[in-house]
Amino acid sequence: MWNVLLSFSGLVALIQLLFLPFFPESPPYLLLQKGDKAGCLKAMKQLWGEGNYHTEFDDMMKEKAVTKGTKIMNVLEVLKEPSVYPQLSTMLLLLLSLQLCGLKIFQTANLQESMIPYVSLGVAISELISIIFCSSIIDHFGRRILLWGGYLMMALILALLETSLLLSDQFLWMRYCSVTLIFLFIIAYGIGP
């Protein structure tokens, strides 16, 4: 019943895709990352209704003052930091265990058994590329645009993937199209959600 589980996550993604444009950016993101005080207050009012948010706003301003001297590290600097090794090893273990999840999809696409480990390796590389790429562009575009665009791309890719899996018995080249779409789905997921 893996297809039911996969479609359930697609349903949740569709709901988020429909409602995400109506929500504002995160107030801490607007204030701390973008420096937009007016946008922060507007987002607070939109999220929490009318009221006095000076206490929360002052707390965010204090946090901004505390983090002002803190250097924002890039991906390579984070990887060199020993304090993140436990979290990094947990994340790597999770990513490696996820490689076992795609085997059924690759079998459904009628790939040769000998090709599946190489395709799984390609999936892992796609995940790594998307994580590095996302961490370098998230400050430029913001979370909202990446989430919305990621979910939109994922929905489109899933529709194309289902079509290519249905046609893989009739057209041999559709098997490779399915694998490419899986790679694109993982990249869209890593960059967006």
Automatic annotation (TrEMBL):
Name of the protein: Solute carrier family 2, facilitated glucose transporter member 9
Q: Which residues form the signal peptide?
A: 1-17
Q: Name one GO cellular component term.
A: plasma membrane
Topology in the lipid bilayer is annotated as: Multi-pass membrane protein
Keywords recorded for this protein, A-Z:
Membrane, Signal, Sugar transport, Transmembrane, Transmembrane helix, Transport
Query: Where found?
Result: Membrane
Task: State one molecular function term (GO).
Answer: D-glucose transmembrane transporter activity
Q: What organism is this sequence from?
A: Cariama cristata (Red-legged seriema)
The record's annotation in Pfam families points to: Sugar_tr (PF00083)
Classification via InterPro entries: GLUT, MFS_dom, MFS_sugar_transport-like, MFS_trans_sf
* Example GO biological process: dehydroascorbic acid transport
Which residue range or ranges hold the Major facilitator superfamily (MFS) profile domain?
A: 1-193
**Chain ranges passing through the membrane:** 118-138, 144-161, 173-192
